[in-house]
Amino acid sequence: MNLAHLHVLLNHFPTIGTVVGFGLFLVALVWKSEDLKRASLGVFVVIALVSIPAYLSGNAAQLILEGAPDISEATIEAHEDAALLAFVFMGLTGLVSWLVLWQFRRLSNFVNWNMPAVLLLSAVTVGLMARAANLGGEINHPEIRPDSVAGPEAAWLQTAAIASAFVFDNPWVWPINEIFHFVGLCILFGVVLLVNLRLLGVIKGVSFAALHQMLPWVIVGFVINVVTGMLFFVANHAQYVANPAFQWKMVLLLLAGVNFLYLTVYDEGWALGPDDNPPRLTRVLAASSIVFWVGVIFLGRWLPYIGSE
Amino acid sequence: MESFFILLEQSSLPAWIREGGTLTGYPLVLFLHTLGLSVLVGLSVALDFRLLGFAPGIPLRALVRAYPLMWAGFALNAATGALLFAADATRHFSNPAFFVKLVCVAFAVVCLVLLRNVVSRKNSADAGPVDEGRVGMRGKVLAASSLGAWFVAIGAARLMAYINEFIQ
User: Fold this and answer.
1) What digits encode the pLDDT tens for the residues A224-261?
2) Which residue, A10, A20, A89, A147, is the most exposed by fewest CB within 10 angstroms?
3) Where would I find the H helices in chain B?
């Protein structure tokens, strides 16, 4: 199985997943079921995470397909830009969904802006995903391609190409982006470490509910690093796509993300008082979270040195 | 001074770090340096956020227990930093960003030491927003300075790799 194959596999998660999550969310709204609402919010967060490798593997597929007969490069580029736009809105939907779940954990209630915001964002995302999927399908299926090839429609839509040119034309952009990537790492890892040290029992005298207030900083760090990381990738994807350290970094990132989502919502941790001993499952989760993030840091630091195969 | 640095670079350990290969040697020391950074700066930043008023439910005294780990991170980075310096001593010694970094790190570490008194002060064991009033102006200024110093240190450290290109 090569990376192009992986893309064909992965891209179904955001496209079908958003539709499933959206359907679930609509049913939850109609039935007024709190549990189902939270479940669909969780689905949105997980799909937002899976969208990261789905988008990234697309560039690998592009490198493999380049120059193949019967493949239109304009169609690929149109698909790439549509996918990037869909990725951004999927990310926003996941972000707001996480925030609503975090707030629900604290208040045991939804606040009035919650559902309209998620509804609007997820509806837009479903539309953008469908567009990206449709343009993607045209790449390998000439029979469904319209006569006039869907080229990049307008200059402002060529996001990926513009970002790439911006990085290469301005030599200070890459170093500044790296600085923000490190700052984001410190914010994210510091709070994750503090919370997990409490869940391991190394730090005591503070309830998990009190530390839970700190969790949005993890998201702040994460967003900084996804944005700066995407800029690195879009500007220079050849350095990353075939790099095993980068691929494993993304795998660990997914695991760490799902772990963090669970930490945000689960009941056992929430009940942990200031001097309680954490249950075994909690300690396992906390230890694995630290291992995943240290692994992400290790692979990130290592990847420029091994390069692409 | 110059000749000492050249001698230092050519000794066996720094030479191994420079030429040690892709997994061991330079990348390994660099990873350990990043790990120490994440622990020390990460926990310090989390502490600063608490002192600046975020998550007021966290009792300050609970954070005293993060100090041994932060010092472990500092020790790791002092050691790996010395190794990285020795590997390229002459180049780093002539790099202005390196000195900016050192000054900022020293400043941030002083802030951290001073903040320990704020964090471990008596009567702050009770949880809740009551704690917040006890941080005081001095604590908040120290926390904000610490945040600023860490971020400038990170910026200067990253620019060390590029600054010679930009100056020329």
Assistant:
1) 999 999 999 988 888 888 888 999 999 999 999 999 99
2) A147
3) 2-10, 12-19, 26-51, 67-87, 89-93, 96-120, 130-133, 136-159, 163-167
Q: Can you tell me the distance from the alpha carbon of A21 to that of A47, in angstroms, rounded to the nearest whole number? A: 9
Residues of A in contact with B154 (CB under 8 A): 179, 182-183, 186
Q: Which residue positions in chain B have pLDDT lower than 50?
A: 124-132
Handedness of CA A151, A157, A159, A165 (dihedral sign): positive
Interface pTM (ipTM) of the complex? 0.90
> Are B26 and A173 spatial neighbours (Cβ–Cβ below 8 Å)?
no
- Facing residue for A190 by CB, picked from B41, B125, B155: B41
Q: Tell me what pLDDT residue A145 has.
A: 67
Residue A39 has which token pair? 């479940």
Note whether A175 contacts B125, CB cutoff 8 Å. no
pTM for this predicted structure: 0.91
Which helix H or strand E contains A301, and what residues bound it? helix A280-306
Distance CA A157, CA B122 (A): 59
Residue from B22, B38, B163 whose CB has the most chain A CBs within 10 Å, to mutate: B38
Instruction: Look up residue A203 and give its amino acid.
Output: I
